[in-house]
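We were asked to recover a plausible sequence for a given structure. The inputs and outputs are reproduced exactly as logged, with field labels preserved.

PROBLEM: sequence recovery
POSITIONS: 183
GIVEN STRUCTURE:
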């Protein structure tokens, strides 16, 4: 289900800068402050480290979603934040190749390790910034998923932020204080 955006708001999210897109999401009470901060930080890091032409395609609330491959990492402490980067193989390989500075041609431990390193970097910067706000969190080790899985929000709603990175679509999955697991 779409996260209650009008067509005009979706166009604004897709075609505006990161800050304006986050403001639309936040105004609609779709994202709480930690979620809004996560989306902002993730997109800024993706634009800096991967591709300046990344575009927001959609933000979707879900209870369960199927993913092709990717990685996850949980941040825990004062609050629990589930994070994951999933996508079609082309998008995951593009992210891995650019960030890992190596030409990856298949989904394997090495390509997923490069994606895990990007997620770990992004999450480390996010945790550090939240610490400045008085919110303490630690990072669990990333987990890798080389084949199709389902991501399930156990006790509430999680979000899937779809990003077009040219080579395909990345799904950035996150939730705040909602149990999420991969099966």
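RECOVERED SEQUENCE:
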């Amino acid at each position: 289900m779409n996260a209650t955006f009008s067509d005009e708001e979706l166009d604004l999210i897709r075609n505006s800068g990161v800050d304006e897109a986050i403001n639309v999401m936040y105004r609609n009470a779709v994202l709480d402050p930690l979620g809004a901060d996560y989306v902002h930080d993730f997109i800024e890091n993706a634009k800096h480290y991967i591709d300046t032409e990344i575009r927001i395609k959609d933000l979707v609330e879900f209870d369960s979603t199927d993913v092709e491959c990717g990685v996850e990492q949980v941040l825990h402490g004062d609050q629990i934040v589930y994070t994951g980067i999933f996508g079609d193989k082309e998008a995951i390989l593009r992210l891995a190749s650019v960030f890992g500075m190596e030409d990856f041609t298949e989904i394997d431990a090495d390509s997923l390790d490069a994606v895990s390193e990007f997620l770990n970097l992004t999450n480390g910067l996010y945790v550090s910034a939240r610490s400045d706000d008085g919110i303490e969190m630690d990072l669990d080790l990333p987990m890798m998923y080389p084949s199709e899985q389902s991501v399930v929000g156990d006790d509430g709603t999680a979000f899937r932020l779809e990003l077009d990175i040219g080579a395909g679509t990345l799904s950035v999955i996150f939730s705040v204080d909602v149990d999420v697991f991969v099966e």
